[in-house]
Amino acid sequence: MEYASPEGRVTPFSVTNRSVLAIAVPMTLAYLTTPFIGLVGTGVVGQFGDAALLGGLAAGAVAFDVVFTSFNFLRAGTTALVAQAFGRGDASEEQAVFWRAVVIALIAGIVLALTAPLTSLAGQWFMQAEPRVNETLDHYVRIRMLGAPFALINYAILGYILGRGEGGFALFLQATLNGVNIVISILLGLHLGWGVEGVAWAAVAGELAGMVIGLAVLLRRFGREPRLARRRIFDAAAFRRLFVLNRDIMIRSLSLLIAFALFTRQGAQFGTVTLAANAVLMNFFIAAGFFLDGFAAAAEQLAGRAVGARYEPAFRKAVYLCSIWGFALAGSMTAALMVFGVDLIALISTSQDVRAAAIAFLPWAAFTALSGVLAFQMDGIFIGAAWSRDMRNMMVVSLLAFIAALLVLPTHYGNAGLWAALHLLLIVRGLCLLAILKPRARATFQSGAAAH
C-alpha cells in the first residue's frame, strides 16, 4: 500500500532508524533545556539570601506546573491529528487542526489569565506556608498567568511541528523560548533587582518570543498554500473529535499528577529526611523522562502518520524501532545512575542524613527508567494513533493498582514499599497498553483497508 505525500506525490512510506532519530534527538535536546529555566530562576532568587523568596518561587512554580500539565493535551492532541492528516496528504486539514488548537489555546489562556487570583489562592491553601512565602507565590502566579495565552498557543505550535516530524524546528523554538527566559531572568531578576517578579516576567517574555517566532514562520508557510475556508476550521464534528481526544489526554495527565502527589504525600509520612531523599531521587526519574519523551514523541508522529496513511507496515516498524531505542536508552540510563548516582546525590544535597537515605534507595530510582520505558512508548503510540479512550482507561486501571499497592506495601516495607508501588504503576500502565495494541491496530488498519 502507498500513501499520498503532502505535495500530492504517491510514495512508499518507510520508517528507518534515521527517521526515528531525526525526531527523537532534537526533541530530547529540547526537553533537556527546560530544567535550566528552573535552575537559573532558583539561582537568581537565591542570590537575595531570603528563604521565603525561594520557597515562594518553588511553590508558585508548582502551582503553575499543575495547571499547565493539565493543558498538555493541546500539544499531544494536535500532534496526533496533524500527523494523521500528514499521513493522508491532507495539508488543508493539517492547517485546520492547528487553527482549532490555537482557538482553544487562546480562549483557555485568557480564562487562566483572568482567574490567576483564584489559582494563587488555591496554591496558598494547598501549601499552607508562612505569610511571606504566600505573598511571593501570589506575585509569581499573577505575573506568570499573564503569559498563559502565549504558553498554550506554543503548545499548539509545537504540536503542529511535531505532527509533521520537524524535530529540528521544534528544538529551535524551545531553545529560543528557554534562552530568552534565562537571559531576561538574569537581567531583570538579578541586575535590576526585581527578584521573583523579574523571573516571572522573564517566563512571560520567553513564551511571547516563542509564540511570535513560531507564528511568523507558520503564517509565512500557510501563505503559500490555498486559503483555508473558515467553515473548515470551525467544523463542528472536527472540533468534537479534538475535544474528545483532548479530554482523554487530560484525564490521563491528571491521573499521573494524582499518583505523583500521593507518592509525595506518603513519603512525607516517613519523615522529613525520607521526604527530602525521595525528592532528590525523583530528579533521576524526571531526567530519565526527558530522554524517554524524545522517543515517545517519535512514536507519536510516526504512529499517527502511519494510521493516517493506512499503512500498517510503517506502523509496525515505528513501534519496533522506537521501542528498541527506548529500551536501549533506558538500560543505559539505569546503568549510568547505578554507577554515578552516589556522586549526583552528593551534588544535589549537602545534608548527610538526606544523602544516606537517598543512597539507600538509589537502585529503586535508577530502575524507574527500565520499568517506565514501555509506558512512555505505548503512550506515544496510542496518542499518535488517537486511541485516546484506551489510553485513558488503562491509565485509570494503573492508578487504581497504584493506590491499592500504596495501601499495602508501605505499611509492611516502608519507603521501599512506596517505590515498589511506583514501579507497579509504570509496569501495569505499559503492559495494559501493550496487551491491547495488536487487536487495536488490527481493527484500525483492517477498517482502513475495507474503506478502500
Automatic annotation (TrEMBL):
InterPro entries the record matches: DinF-like (IPR044644), MATE_fam (IPR002528)
Keyword rRNA-binding in annotation: no
Secretion signal span: none
Keywords per UniProt: Membrane, Transmembrane, Transmembrane helix
Coiled coil: none
Main subcellular location of this protein, as a coarse class: membrane
Membrane topology note: Multi-pass membrane protein
Cellular localisation: Membrane
Residue ranges of the TM segments: 20-45, 51-76, 97-123, 143-162, 169-194, 200-223, 244-263, 275-297, 318-348, 354-376, 396-413, 419-437
CDD domains associated with the record: MATE_DinF_like
Database matches in Pfam families: MatE (PF01554)
Protein family (similarity comment): Belongs to the multi antimicrobial extrusion (MATE) (TC 2.A.66.1) family.
Annotated protein name in UniProt: MATE family efflux transporter
Species this chain originates from: Aminobacter carboxidus
